[in-house]
Amino acid sequence: MRKKKIIVLCLAVALSALSMVNGTLAYFTDTDSAVNVLTMGSVQIAQHEQQRKLAPDGSLIELEPFENGKMLIPSMGPAKYLTYDKLDDSYKFLADGNKVSLPNAIDKIVTVENMGNVPAYVRTIFAFEAPAGFDRNAHVNNKPGWALLRNDIDGAANGTMSNTEWKWDFFVETARFNMDDGQSYVIAVATAQKPLEAGKETIPSLLQYYLNKFTDSKHVQAFGGSLEIYAFTQAVQADGFASADVAFKESFGEITYDSTTGKFSNLPWDEMKESWSNVADTSWYNDAASSFTLTTPQQLAGLSELVNAQGKTFAGKTVLLGASMDMGAYAFTPIGQTGAKTFAGNFDGQGYTIRNLYIDSSKETGAHYSSGLFGWIEHTSVSAYIQNVVVEGAKVTGHHNVGVIVGSAYGVSISNCTVSKATISCTYANNDADGDKAGVIAGYLYNGTALTNCHVLNSTVSAGRDAGQMVGCLISGTTDGCTATNVTVVANGTSTGANIRNELIGRIS
Q1: How far apart, in Å, are the Cα atoms of 238 and each of 122, 334, 348?
Q2: pTM for the whole thing?
């Protein structure tokens, strides 16, 4: 699932209705602003998408954030350029240039700002929706299509202004990337050729976007009611690389198209549709601290990254939720997965709600792999607990030890947790992952784990064996003050079917 902002555009006169999508993919969300950036090294950047705010006479008042809800009408005239001054590695639009802008073109002024303290190479990857028959160069052959006003070192032609900063590479018209909305897109990469110094902002790579005069209502229908643009900026520290091309090839990989398979390599949207791990933020962690507060999905994914990839157990440390969060955009990797990758600290949700948690461990068929917000948690030399966690609308799939809050817990305390509208599925894969131990709160609790004042509502559990409304299997543990309301447990026929119970616990030993 991709997060995107839709611009509803109403065409005037006899022209067709069309819409346009702000091409932001929500890597990091600050209020309602989506910032699409991915960095390597000690780099911090911001991608800006703006438009001009004009006075009634057409003169420029200021630049403002790009907004939805504009009217997009095919242009009847030749390409004209927004003019601006380049001053001290920044820019400003000229008032008289605003008056001669191409009629009916939509501003989408894309720049990149280096907010860190080291020089960085930057590139912005664009995906322009292009149904069959639409081509960025269609106007040359008097065919319906779209065109861009942009800055490119290759010279001023067909809407391109010459500069020494951005180099654009377009893939051939037949090289199309299929998003999960069923539409196809032409891919372009704008790469800044010189390092962007700390505190500086690039000139615009993209300025405007428009439909040419050969586009009518019949052609617009091919867009399926919406026209979409995606923009995604990557950055890497400049130090140690001979050029921008070398930096991106070694850090993010070269973007290529295989004409045999019809597939692209190293596009950011491929990664983003798969896992929160690709956008994990671990910058909040340091070994010396004993308490941490997480306020974004990326930081929560960072906790998973620290435990699973870096071996941080968090023993003796406490992690707090500081805000509610929606995890529905991408799949989440459990925090701790097996006894070899375990969380051993304290986690306090502070009553905040985690919504739309999606975990798919169907490819994990090894012994002991456990699935939940926490896959595997255990106490070490100090106690460990999970408390005050609220989860709504979770979907968790796995083959062994499956629950929303925790897959497998060893000698810990779990208290005051509430899960509602959850779907749990635990199926047979092999003798090590045989569809057993599933519940809404936890799959497997053992060795003194205490479950207190936890509640589940309006949920379903499907498993091969050892499944309950709240806990799949409880061995040498306790429960107190726990309830289940409108929770259904069913056997899915993938294992023995033993201990499938519409009770709080499937199997107790």
Answers
A1: 9, 34, 40
A2: 0.52
